[in-house]
Design goal:
By secondary structure, the protein is mainly α. It has 15 helices and no strands. It has helices at about 5-10, 20-60, 75-80, 85-115, 120-130, 135-145, 150-160, 175-200, 200-210, 215-225, 230-245, 245-255, 265-275, 275-305, 305-310.
Length: about 300
């Protein structure tokens, strides 16, 4: 008997093992099966997301959908020079710059308050969660009852011998919509922050307290770093919701509201009604690029804040 045959019987490295080949065949079959499972979702994404987005890019680059004459960035230049678009972009940016930080800060403060042992905590939480159960139309109806020219607030002003104000056509209209946005979204953001704060390691907080760290320092050095992913998520969600506040404003004021409430969605909605698809597509792409830049900046900031926690 040769040395090689003895080594094969003893299980030496000379013995051929067919398992890797079987494993490779199994890997290929698993990939094919996985692709078959993903295929319906991929088709749905291509049909309902990728194809419409490509169509929007095409509309933004032609003079009109019928002749399809390529004009490059001419539609973008016309949109940027349009006074209505400038007003809408300014109002939308101002609203987001005010509403988003307020929503994030106030919801975080509420979560920290509810994290402490206070009486009536469950009722307090229910109060802020109740707007989530109310449809948008009902919320708008409540605001109309309060802030209409013949509404409850002006009734109080008249009873105090004060001049009534047309709130939705005054300089206060922007503040009213910000209050509506906060009232509608604070409860959900508060719950997210409460869940994030509950996952902060208690041992680290106790160790920092023993070392003499103040409550403010524990918050910024520990809690804020651990909840940074939730902070990023809430900020992005609040930003998206601030761009979607058009629903409430439209139900309150219609197609052409007071100048301070004329948002980007109003401009795009009016372009759609005028069948001006090329300007509508250009405005939509501009808004999408702006949001992508803002979100990328937020991701960069979050990665720097929570880098040492991940390590």
């Amino acid at each position: 008997m040769s040395v090689k045959s003895i080594a094969v019987k003893l299980g030496s490295p000379f013995k051929r093992n067919p398992k890797p080949q079987i494993g490779m065949r199994g890997t290929y079959s698993e990939k094919i099966i996985s692709f078959c499972y993903l295929l319906p979702s991929l088709i749905g994404v291509m049909v309902f997301f990728v194809a419409p987005f490509a169509q929007i890019i095409r509309y933004a680059m032609v003079d009109n959908p019928i002749s399809n004459t390529f004009v490059g960035f001419a539609n973008f230049v016309q949109v940027f020079k349009n006074a209505a678009f400038q007003t809408a972009a300014k109002n939308t940016a101002r609203f987001s710059a005010i509403a988003v930080p307020l929503a994030v800060i106030l919801s975080l403060l509420l979560a920290m308050v509810l994290e402490a042992k206070i009486p009536g905590k469950s009722k307090f939480r229910t109060f802020f969660l109740s707007p989530m159960m109310v449809p948008v139309a009902s919320i708008v109806l409540i605001w109309q009852v309060i802030f209409d020219y013949n509404g409850a607030l002006n009734g109080v002003l008249v009873s105090l011998n004060m001049v009534p104000i047309d709130w939705m056509k005054s300089d206060y209209s922007h503040i009213i919509v910000v209050i509506l946005f906060l009232w509608k979204n604070l409860g959900y953001f508060m719950i997210l922050f409460m869940a994030a704060l509950a996952n902060v390691p208690k041992a680290l907080l106790e160790a920092a307290s023993v070392d003499g760290a103040s409550g403010l320092r524990r918050f910024f050095q520990l809690k804020l770093r651990f909840i940074s992913p939730t902070l990023l998520f809430v900020t992005i969600l609040s930003l998206i919701n601030s761009f979607k506040v058009f629903r409430e404003v439209y139900l309150l004021t219609g197609d052409y509201p007071y100048e301070d409430l004329y948002l980007l969605q109003h401009y795009m909605n009016n372009m759609f009604r005028n069948i001006d698809y090329q300007k509508l597509s250009a405005a939509a792409l501009i808004m999408g690029v702006a949001m992508a830049l803002i979100i990328s900046i937020l991701f960069t900031a979050e990665s720097r804040i929570g880098r040492d926690i991940e390590q």
